[in-house]
Amino acid sequence: MIVIHVPGKPNYKSIRIQTRCRNDIENRQVYDFSASELSAIPDYSRDYRGAELRNKPNPIYNCYGMTFACARTTVGPESVQMILDDDGYTEIQNADEVLPGDVIIYYNDNGEIWHSGIVVSKPSDERIKIPWVVSKWGKYSEVYHQAYDVPYRPIAQVRYWRITK
Amino acid sequence: MISIDIEALKREYLFANTVEQLYQHFRENTSLQNLAKTEKPEILVEGYKKRTEKDERSIKDVVEAYAVLIAVTFYDYKEAIKIFKKFDLSKLEWGEELKDIYRREARITIYITGQGRGQVLKEIHTRGSGTMSYIKGQVKGVVGDFKQTKSETSNAVLSTFVPINKSAKGDRR
């Protein structure tokens, strides 16, 4: 395959990914800036209590790409509901029942999907019921953080999902 | 040229999962409102061109190019749309989508009920995403807070607003 890159144009590619019901998931892999800079990006996680970076910044995938596409590509929030429906996810109504491996989805005050991640540990404090999560912060890194410590605003609601069907 | 809060914007750019987040968070950055006030459109267009035509772009180049686009959204709507035509938006991942968001959400035509009912009084710019339900300020002699009562289109481009406090006074002409 010959890849023609036009100078000054973002380099877009996409890969074929589908839901369990064989619906295509739109996606794109983008390098809008030089990859040589990635290692020089500061560690922003220090501004979030207890947060730690899991890897170096990587613009190829975003939070939805990490959560639903094995960190291979960037997926838009408009595909998320289709994935939840097609792949047999059920919402976990009771925060007490959240387990590692569950998907966390953040919603803004308009009810729009705003961010996502994967639960990696149960809440350590039974009173607060906030689990720890790994999520991809845009083009930046995967970050290990408390569920509510994210750089996205406004977060009006979080909901947890698990494949049950 | 282009004096902006680059470190904060770089962070917002890297953290953005979607173009909607980029649009919202960049518009909240006051340095871009100042950029719109202090720089002439032709300087911004030139700045965009210079940054996006590089073969090997830095993060700073990309952030500054987005900053220029967002600064333009603070101009008068008609002028902004005219300026947008001068940009090659395909040079950025979210260039075209950003313009679409601006067109969809930035413009609201206000009608005032009561005195002057149905009359288009002024086009204003709003900020952020989502449907706007309240505005505050002065619109051709009417001062106060206004509440949206009716949206003529699904994306709220045309909306009806009514005064919601007694201090709001209609245009008596």
Structural class of chain B: alpha+beta
Give the topology string of chain B: H per helix, E per strand.
Answer: HHHHHHHEEEEE
Shape of chain B: globular
Instruction: Enumerate the strands of the largest sheet of chain B in spatial order, edge to edge or round the barrel.
Output: 2-1-5-4-3
CATH fold-type name of chain A:
endopeptidase fold (from Nostoc punctiforme)
Q: Would you report the number of β strands of chain B?
A: 5
General description of the model:
The complex is a heterodimer of chains A (165) and B (173). By secondary structure, chain A is mainly β. Chain A has one domain (12-35, 42-163): endopeptidase fold (from Nostoc punctiforme), CATH 3.90.1720. In chain A, 8% of the residues lie in helices and 28% in strands. Chain A has a 7-stranded antiparallel beta sheet. Chain A has a 3-stranded antiparallel beta sheet with strand order 1-2-4. Chain B is of the alpha+beta class and 173 residues long. Chain B is 42% helix and 20% strand. Chain B has 7 helices and 5 strands. Chain B has a 5-stranded mixed beta sheet. Mean pLDDT of chain B is 72; it is low at 109-132, 136-145, 150-160 and 164-173. At the A-B interface, loops of A face helix 1 and helix 5 of B.
